[in-house]
From TrEMBL:
Domain spans labelled Protein kinase: 9-116
Binding site residues for ATP: 38
The protein's Enzyme Commission number: 2.7.11.1
Entry annotated with the keyword ATP-binding: yes
InterPro entries reported in the protein's UniProt record: Kinase-like_dom_sf, Prot_kinase_dom, Protein_kinase_ATP_BS
The protein, known as: non-specific serine/threonine protein kinase
GO MF: ATP binding; protein serine/threonine kinase activity
Reactions performed catalytically: L-threonyl-[protein] + ATP = O-phospho-L-threonyl-[protein] + ADP + H(+); L-seryl-[protein] + ATP = O-phospho-L-seryl-[protein] + ADP + H(+)
Alphabetized PANTHER family for the sequence: MITOGEN-ACTIVATED PROTEIN KINASE KINASE KINASE 20-RELATED (PTHR43289), SERINE_THREONINE-PROTEIN KINASE NEKL-3 (PTHR43289:SF6)
Keywords, alphabetical: ATP-binding, Kinase, Nucleotide-binding, Serine/threonine-protein kinase, Transferase
Enzyme class: transferase
Length: 116
């Protein structure tokens, strides 16, 4: 499998980017699975307080065990870039879904709605 080396990962395809960084489809060569890696912009690594907070929050997220949160497999810093490795969820991004108006809240039948 091709891609750009990043530690034990190979960055295969850029999936998106924003103010905090980029999200890549990647191959984890240690576990031989396809994952998503969020790479934060390099300037975030210059701030020691930000790095401490990132590690604390990533550690807390990695400990979650619920079907309602994406599992975090790994996090840290490689070559001056903070990263978080997580399960890759295939599908459309939330921004596209919301732009189409497809994610409107659904209400149950009238007899299921209650007021408190």
């Amino acid at each position: 499998m091709g891609g750009t080396p990043f530690g034990r990962y190979r960055l295969v395809e850029l999936l998106g980017h924003g103010g905090m960084g980029e999200v890549w489809r990647a191959h984890d060569t240690g576990t031989d699975r396809i994952v998503a890696i969020k790479l934060l912009h390099p300037h975030f690594s210059d701030n020691e307080e930000f790095k401490r907070r990132f590690r604390r929050e990533a550690h807390a997220a990695a400990r979650l065990n619920t079907p309602h949160a994406i599992p975090i497999y790994d996090y840290g810093e490689i070559d001056g870039r903070l990263y978080m490795c997580m399960r890759l969820i295939e599908g459309r991004d939330l921004q596209s879904v919301l732009a189409e108006g497809a994610a409107r809240p659904r209400m149950g039948p009238p007899h299921h709605r209650t007021s408190r």
